[in-house]
Amino acid sequence: MNFIYAALASLFFTLGILGDVPYTSIDSAFEANNPNAIVALGKSKILINVLGKEGVYSQAQAGLVLKDFFTRKPGSEFNFYFKGKETADGTFAIGNYISRSEKFRVTIHFKTEGDQYKIESLRIEED
Questions:
Q1: pLDDT at 99 > cutoff 70
Q2: Dihedral (C-alpha) 47, 52, 53, 54: value to the nearest 10 degrees?
């Protein structure tokens, strides 16, 4: 039975049925300091770690945590510098967020939910 699931997953990737990872949307949301746009791309519960403070939050709560970060550390530049291999289980990416003279590393883990990649966890740490 596992062989059948593996074969179907391979077929989905070959045919491109699984949606794209929303890199562009996340990039734009970070540059606009828009926490709601980021969490809208997440699962119903998201693991958030901002500068060492970690918790599992609903989308609404995660939005408040990110809003607080953006208020304290407003930025205007974000870019991904590493994008992991996309699999049927998910993927991850690492980017830089620049706020004034501070630089932060952002690590995002995606899980597949249906035919879409959704943010499962997001970590922001000083670089």
A1: yes
A2: 20
